[in-house]
Amino acid sequence: MYNYTIKYTAENTYENPVFESFWQYIVTPQNNSTQELNSGLFTVSEDALVEKSINGYNFETTRIHTKKPFESIAFEAVFKLTKTKADPFKIDPKFTIEDDYKAISVLDFQVDYEAFLSTTELTTLPKAHADLFDFDMSKSILDNLKKLNTWVHEYIAFKEGETTSETLLEEILEKKQGLSPSFTHLLCAIARVNKIPARYVSGYLHQGDGFFGDSQMYAWAEIFVPNLGWIGFDPANNILTDHNHIKVTHGRDYKDCEPLKQLLFSYGEKKSKCVVEVTYEQ
Amino acid sequence: MKPTNFKHLFSSYDGNENLFDEIFDKKQNVRKVYQKLFDIYNDQSIEEFINLNNKAKTSFFNQGITFQVYSDDKAQEKIFPFDLFPRIIDANEWKIIEQGVLQRCKALNAFIWDIYHDKNIIKAGLVPMELISSSANYLRQMGGLDPVGGIYNHISGTDLIKHSDGKYYVLEDNIRCPSGVSYVIYNRNALKRSLFGVFNHYDIHTVTDYSENLLEILESVKPKGVDVPTCVVITPGVYNSAYFEHSYLAKTMGIELVEGRDLVVENDFVYMKTISGLTRVDVIYRRIDDGFLDPLEFKKDSAIGVPGLFAAYKKGNVTLVNAPGTGVADDKAIYTYMPEIIKFYLGEKPILNNVHTYHCSRPTDLKFVLENIHNLVIKPVDEAGGYGISIGNRLTKPEIEAVKKVILQNPRKYIAQPIMSLSVHATYIEDCQSFEQRHVDLRTFTLLGQDKEFVLKGGLTRVALKKGNLIVNSSQGGGSKDTWVLKK
Lengths: 282, 488
Known about the structure:
The structure holds two protein chains of two kinds. By secondary structure, chain A is an alpha+beta fold. Chain A is built from six helices and 15 strands.
């Protein structure tokens, strides 16, 4: 059992008053088999209506609506949750490598997992890079994915500043650097080209163990391995996900998981700052 | 006594016998249903008719029946061109049309349900998954969502043409926000004002009952637990090309016309801001495209939508008409599969014909299309209003090469069809002050609700006003005619 406190803070200041604004945060950790949300508290510095809802993909959202003018606004979300260790894989010895590839070639499978098999703008491999990584069909899908995870980790350097979460793979592959969303997009793109369903996960990483992490939300991938289900791969750290990964939402790429969407009625410059702290309590 | 220089309206009518003329048969005899009307019109002199035509135009102008034409650099407000000679469809012919469009709309509704649930038609190998997943109008947020009464395409506009073989063919199924119905009603009103007498000779169905039927359809899909629903029409605003229609429908249904900023979502319920406070809204007839409905769910920069609307819809607290994501089925690439779709869901044979369609996404079709562009119409799969269409036999060689290049850049975006010969109808042409043959099509309007269905007995007959032109869309300079459906 691991107990975490996550503090998400965002501050925005504006050159001119904002008359009305709508904000939608997707930052609340999900309840699932390895994590349980104990409490969540969302506060806003200004007079605002704060509501919980769900988005089109069934993940929890926090929606804020301000009706009075303001020049600066701050948000703070504090979540407390308990994480358990994931069970080790139970690989069925009767399930052969041929079964692996047979499973993903069935039409029903391809239809059911369509959303995570189709490429999106952010997970399209440029034609020039179509054969960056070849699957070894004599090895299991899981073994190939582990190898791919390492390959992505080594191919791109973890570096802040030059790319964003929405940088296309073409540019990422050219610069060979990026942050966790770009690592994840590349991993998903190659898995999907090989007909393996892969989804983008947005969440938090506890960096206590010396992992690479982002100062805001963190991204990794969940890839569907026949006979095992969805397995978490963290290419930025070259590991399988563990108790340090706290999941918020998943989607086809970053755009489905954007932590914040907003609509403001104002004009002029703005300054924003967003910080995430994940602390571990024994 | 008629003056000696009396010139009949049809005295210079030049019938091209290679075309299917709605009024004259191959031997240039007037068809039976048109005989009486023809006699009345032909009894008028051109001067009398010009006078009448000017009155009708003034009437449209005074009522503000206009629409916007967009071109590259500017938007222009135009009077809707209206032709005083109506089109007549007899009862037997109409019966086939009505059954045919209803069949298509029901099949499409079942198809959309399936695509957003189990996807059985794809698993059966009848429609390729790729066609759905690559469609820009496929909204994955609609997956697993059950709209009230299982209805997605409450309002459909099916475009038909009559080919030179005298049979009706469906050109397009429009199930996003089809427009044009207000013109149907205004055309009828305008004709009644100008030529009241002609209505005495024919027993025709009314079209003015559309709005009351539309309101019934809207009310039939009210959210659970609502007794008397509040329905509204939402419009992108006064600059939209169909704003006239939005305001007309709201007015005739007796419900509010709102813009995004008039609505607000609180606790996943939708409210309308009124001078006496917030009023809950239950059903929204939306004339805003999917992507602009909710900036928190779809396009981030949409300021014409309502933040939080989709969440309210998903929770079943408000009904959107048509449902978001219907566009996946009126994609012109899906059109090709209509015979299979009708058979799969209804177990029936299609009543109306489909025009053979080549998919540029299929390598063999693409090859055929590239070699035969001069005999084909090339259409982008996801554009409305007749934009982006190339008619092969009207293109010069360099233009053909340019079209080829465009197709090859994104084959999935294009389909091709043989050049269908739309039927022609006598239409008054101002420039030559006489009646001439012009190509026409027919847009029908179908409504589906919970335990209710309705096909408007009439439709919008659109006329291509340029001689020989096949594109009838009003946004491309087409006109229209009143369309009479005869009672038995």
